[in-house]
Amino acid sequence: MTDGIANNKIKFNLLCNRESSIPIFLRNWWLDAVCGPENWDVVLYEKGERIFAVLPYYKKTRYGLKLITMPRLTPFMGAWLTYPENQKHVTKMSYEKECYWALIDQLPKVNIFLQYFPPAFTNWLPFRWKGFEQTTVYTYAFEELTDLDKIWNGMQENIRREIRKAKKQLIVKTGLDLDRFLEINSLSFSRQHISFPVKEEIVRSVDVVCSLQNRRIIFYAEDEHGRIHAAVYIVWDENSAYYLMGGGDAALRNSGAHSLLMWESIRFASQVTLRFDFEGSMYEPIERFFRAFGARQIPIFCLMRSSPWMKLLLCARDVVLSLKKQD
Questions:
Q1: Distance of alpha carbon 254 from alpha carbon 170, whole angstroms
Q2: Cβ distance 112 to 268 under 8 Å?
Q3: Looking at residues 231-253, what average pLDDT do you find?
Q4: What is the pLDDT at residue 151?
Q5: Are 297 and 136 in contact (CB under 8 A)?
Q6: Could you tell me if residue 287 is inside a domain?
Q7: How far is Cα 297 from Cα 8, in angstroms, rounded to an integer?
Q8: For residue 217, is pLDDT > 80?
Q9: Residue 309 belongs to domain spanning
Q10: pLDDT category, 58, cuts 50, 70, 90?
């Protein structure tokens, strides 16, 4: 690690300690857990002693290619900016261009850059002008949690019905140990005949740091026989709570446990933060379930850029695949 990069990380660590608006997934202790302390860096835009913008990134090498990409269990990374007080909208766009270009110009040269940016990020034009491309995924979120009755009334009737049914036969508890949670969580994947896509040591690292920071809670639903129907893992910062992981017993899936746990998570979030994010899936059945809670659909921008020779390589691959289809 060069002195400049090391100095950037020291400055960024101090910034994370004092700046509450930095999302949990961009904070230094989160990145240490999901990337490993030596596998992430950060670029800063500074004027004098003040930091105006940051862009942390996860770096890896695969098949000889240098990549900046997304670590596991991390829905987004991207850039964080601080804005001048009382800034006019007419100057906001030019300010963002100044900050983003300063960050982009400091990024290391890699074969592929791919990051999902925070939900609040909407202006990707400065990245386009620097050769980036964009695709969109979606999440669902409640942007404010002050009126739980309004949220309840905005749900589809089947969700409210499932919650009422579950309340009659299940008790929602906290304090489930991580080993038991991982067992419950894995059931959703084994039902689909796939393995949990995150290494257990990464989950354990995240759990340790989130517990130390008091930024996580596990809710689970248990019946009178001691059977756990479902469990969810929630993390939060000062501005938002996030549904990070969850699973349930397929044999008990008709109890409404997952709907009840999501509702309890929303109610809990209203006590500790400002919004609740389902971290929506592009998988249709999951998207349909999240949408039924009445949350707002929010676009998430995925920004990508490839080196010139990497573009040629990908183009050649596409040509070969096209020719094979014609044979």
A1: 12
A2: no
A3: 96
A4: 98
A5: no
A6: no
A7: 35
A8: yes
A9: 3-138+300-326
A10: very high
Confidence of residue 322 (pLDDT cuts 50, 70, 90): low
Question: Are 68 and 171 members of one domain?
Answer: no
Domain at 187, CATH number = 3.40.630.30
pLDDT at 326 over 50: no
Instruction: Kindly state whether residue 85 falls inside one of the protein's structural domains.
Output: yes
Beta bridge partners of 245: 233
pTM: 0.92
The answer on 8 and 31 residing in a single domain is yes
Residues 212 and 306 in one domain: no
Q: Do the domain assignments include residue 282?
A: no
* Residue length of the chain: 327
DSSP 198-233: S-HHHHHHHHHHHHHTT-EEEEEEE-TTS-EEEEEE
Residue-wise pLDDT tens digits, 130-176: 999 999 999 999 999 999 999 999 999 999 999 999 999 999 999 99
Is position 150 within any domain? yes
Which residue has tokens 């990497």? 310
- Of 154, 118, 110, the closest CA to residue 21 belongs to 118
Judged by DSSP in three states, 9 sits in helix
* 154 and 270, same domain (yes or no): yes
Query: Looking at the 3D structure of the chain, how many domains does it have?
Result: 2
Query: Residues 158, 39: one domain?
Result: no
Which one-letter DSSP state was computed for residue 117? Answer: P
Other CB atoms within 10 Å distance of the CB of residue 246: 21
Q: Beta strand 112-116 with 276-277: parallel, antiparallel or unpaired?
A: unpaired
Same domain, 230 and 150: yes
